[in-house]
Amino acid sequence: MMSGRRLAGRVFDETKVSQDEGRNLSDLRVPLRAASEGRGDAYVEVRGLSHVFYARDDTPTPTLLNFDLQIGRGEFIAVVGPSGCGKTTLLNVTAGLLVPSAGTVLIDGKPVSGIQPTVGYMPARDALLPWRTAARNVEYALEIKRIGDRQAVAQEMLRRVGLAGYEHRYIGELSQGMRQRVAIARTFATAPHILLMDEPFSALDAQTRAQMHELFMEMWETDRKSVILVTHDVSEAITLADRVIVLSPRPGTIRLDLEIALERPRKTRNLYHQEQFRQYLAQLWDALGYDSPDVEDLASHN
């Protein structure tokens, strides 16, 4: 039996969770593909990660179960799967925001314990402060980490995301796409080694989202940080990632670990017409248990 510690102090009991779910844990242990096993260059390593949330009446809701994953230094991973399968839980444990019921996450060989200063977290909403200007929002991340020369760094990052001249605009004066650019600038400003992204482009319209994809990839190509992107958009996952991980319904286990061999740099407008893109799309939708959408429909919206 595997045991672990929860924030509330409960002991994680696999047998109890298994009975509540009506299935054996051994049936849920899905091995990674060979290319993901034993990666010698793993920078982020997830070992036997399990997490259970408890309702007020102590009813358990397992989100991840015996989850193993290895991510190389500078590798871009996208995670897709149905709602409630543990995608955001994986990010929160990696960031040190959540203590798992069992298992551990290691960054550069060291177990995660508490908030990680080398990790940048970009949520679905931009979470910008409306009483601060664009530049002061970027500076805020630097203030928290006590990084000097904040004004110069903020100016440079806003220039890189195409917002030179908008440094002194307040958030309410910016479009949604411009706000997302500020959020990207803020995330990159602290020079994190790892980027955790929880559906950061989901609130954008199709055209703006495609623009943000290309902007983000251009910035990422400069220093190749390790990235874990959570998304429900399968085409977005293929567009951005080196590998796409498909999770099962909760408790989340890996159904597919698919390497994306599309050449970089990538241009969104060109990808949808490639046969290889279509093949990846079909494989991922099949792993999710759905028919693949018409790629021509995707292309017409980008």
Question: How would the blueprint of this fold be written?
Answer:
Blueprint: H1 14-21, E1 42-54, E2 60-72, E3 76-80, H2 87-95, E4 102-107, E5 110-111, E6 119-122, H3 134-144, H4 150-160, H5 176-189, E7 194-198, H6 206-223, E8 226-230, H7 234-240, E9 243-247, E10 254-259, H8 268-271, H9 275-288, H10 295-300
Parallel strand pairs: 3-8, 3-9, 6-7, 7-8
Antiparallel strand pairs: 1-2, 1-4, 4-5, 9-10
Description:
With 302 residues, the protein is α/β, with parallel strands linked by helices. It has helices at 14-21, 87-95, 134-144, 150-160, 176-189, 206-223, 234-240, 268-271, 275-288, 295-300, and strands spanning 42-54, 60-72, 76-80, 102-107, 110-111, 119-122, 194-198, 226-230, 243-247, 254-259. The strands form two sheets. The chain has a six-stranded mixed beta sheet, sandwiched between helices. It is globular and about 45 Å long. The chain starts with 13 loop residues before the first helix and ends with a helix.
Low-pLDDT segments: 1-12, 18-39
Number of strands: 10
- Let me know the largest β-sheet: 6 strands, mixed
Please state how the strands of the largest beta sheet are arranged side by side. 6-7-8-3-9-10
- Measured between the Cα atoms of the first and last residue, the distance is 49 Å
Short characterization:
With 302 residues, the protein is of the alpha/beta class. The protein has 10 helices and 10 strands. The chain has a 6-stranded mixed beta sheet with strand order 6-7-8-3-9-10, sandwiched between helices. It has a 4-stranded antiparallel beta sheet with strand order 2-1-4-5, covered by helices on one side.
